[in-house]
Structure formats: C-alpha cells, structure tokens
C-alpha cells in the first residue's frame, strides 16, 4: 500500500528504527518528501531505537533458547539417521540455507517470504552483499558461537561496578576474552532468524530473549564509533 499512497502518516520508528524500517519503509520512493512532526524528538527516538536492554533474566532465557536450538538440531540428526527419506528433506533444507549464506544475505532475504520470523536491525547494502563468515554458516557452529557470546555477557553483568564503554572498546574486550571477532557479530540477528525459519520453529516467543541478544550483537558490530 505504501507504494500507491500519496500521503503516509506513521510513527517515527517506522523510518528511524533499523529493526523495523527495512520491513515497513523499504518501498518508500527515493523522491519522497519526509515531514517530521515534533522534530525535536528525533534524537530521543534514534537513541531508543539503537538501544538494547540486556539483563540477567534475558541472558538466562537466551541460554535456555540455545539449549532448545541444540535439541532441534539433535532431533534433526536423529531423523536423518533413522528415516532416510524424511531425513533427506530436512538435511536438504540446511544445505540450501548454507549455500544461501555463502552467497550473501541479500540472496537469503530474496529466498525467504516477506514476513520476517524475527525482527532484525537493518544492515548496510555493502554488508548484505557479503557472504556470511564461515565460522557461523553451519548451524552447530553458530549455536556454539551464540553460547560463547551469551556466557561473555553473563560475566560482564557479574561486576559490582557501573562500566561505560564505547562499542569499539566493548568489541576489543570481547575479542581479548573470547577471540570473537566483530565481523560474525554483524550477521547474528539475520543468522538466527534464518536458522529459526529453516528449522520451522513455531514457538517464536521462546526465542525473544535470544533474538534480543543477537540484535545487540548486530547493532554493536555494525554501528561502532570506531573499529
């Protein structure tokens, strides 16, 4: 409908929040005129849309979601070994996903339905053209990657002091402690959404906390002040 409308009135977030702008406003024409009402609120909206609250309960729920993903993969492997016909279909889904990840996120997005399973931050076009890093292409490797990242965040929250750090400083400390590089973090949100879609998981609410962690990873790696 947005491509046929002469006037569109909607919330700031549909244009400024990278987690929803790609879904709602991507068909907005380049020649469109944008008028902001109460424009002095834009800074606050941008800060809010680029902020992610990570708490201990969220990290604990994320750990449970990681266990659930592992169980889904284990059941898939069991199906493959017991029933060759049914297993070949499931294995083919993972192979097709892997090939799309090699081609890049743009190809992955084109292959999926327009309705997103999980909301993701918008990635710049140059990132969308890249292949997903090899260490998170396979599902089991990506799950192990998420587990390491969640455990790191848990250690950061155990401190009794308030610590302020720039995204660049956070990424540097993360690399020193876990050897996790910033590049695969960029793809975390989309990679998780792809995996949930490929495994045909219907209980999406179960993964809300883990999706928030993946979203944080993508944001901090994609929009650092310096690298």
UniProtKB/TrEMBL annotation:
<dbReference type="GO" id="GO:0045951">
    <property type="term" value="P:positive regulation of mitotic recombination"/>
</dbReference>
<keyword id="KW-0378">Hydrolase</keyword>
<dbReference type="Pfam" id="PF06733">
    <property type="entry name" value="DEAD_2"/>
</dbReference>
<dbReference type="InterPro" id="IPR027417">
    <property type="entry name" value="P-loop_NTPase"/>
</dbReference>
<dbReference type="InterPro" id="IPR002464">
    <property type="entry name" value="DNA/RNA_helicase_DEAH_CS"/>
</dbReference>
<dbReference type="GO" id="GO:0006289">
    <property type="term" value="P:nucleotide-excision repair"/>
</dbReference>
<dbReference type="GO" id="GO:0006366">
    <property type="term" value="P:transcription by RNA polymerase II"/>
</dbReference>
<dbReference type="GO" id="GO:0005634">
    <property type="term" value="C:nucleus"/>
</dbReference>
<keyword id="KW-0234">DNA repair</keyword>
<dbReference type="GO" id="GO:0016818">
    <property type="term" value="F:hydrolase activity, acting on acid anhydrides, in phosphorus-containing anhydrides"/>
</dbReference>
<keyword id="KW-0238">DNA-binding</keyword>
<keyword id="KW-0004">4Fe-4S</keyword>
<keyword id="KW-0227">DNA damage</keyword>
<dbReference type="InterPro" id="IPR014013">
    <property type="entry name" value="Helic_SF1/SF2_ATP-bd_DinG/Rad3"/>
</dbReference>
<keyword id="KW-0479">Metal-binding</keyword>
<protein>
    <recommendedName>
        <fullName>DNA 5'-3' helicase</fullName>
        <ecNumber>5.6.2.3</ecNumber>
    </recommendedName>
</protein>
<keyword id="KW-0547">Nucleotide-binding</keyword>
<dbReference type="GO" id="GO:0051539">
    <property type="term" value="F:4 iron, 4 sulfur cluster binding"/>
</dbReference>
<dbReference type="GO" id="GO:0043139">
    <property type="term" value="F:5'-3' DNA helicase activity"/>
</dbReference>
<dbReference type="InterPro" id="IPR045028">
    <property type="entry name" value="DinG/Rad3-like"/>
</dbReference>
<dbReference type="InterPro" id="IPR010643">
    <property type="entry name" value="HBB"/>
</dbReference>
<keyword id="KW-0411">Iron-sulfur</keyword>
<dbReference type="GO" id="GO:0003684">
    <property type="term" value="F:damaged DNA binding"/>
</dbReference>
<keyword id="KW-0067">ATP-binding</keyword>
<dbReference type="Pfam" id="PF06777">
    <property type="entry name" value="HBB"/>
</dbReference>
<dbReference type="InterPro" id="IPR001945">
    <property type="entry name" value="RAD3/XPD"/>
</dbReference>
<feature type="domain" description="Helicase ATP-binding">
    <location>
        <begin position="1"/>
        <end position="93"/>
    </location>
</feature>
<dbReference type="GO" id="GO:0005524">
    <property type="term" value="F:ATP binding"/>
</dbReference>
<keyword id="KW-0408">Iron</keyword>
<dbReference type="InterPro" id="IPR010614">
    <property type="entry name" value="RAD3-like_helicase_DEAD"/>
</dbReference>
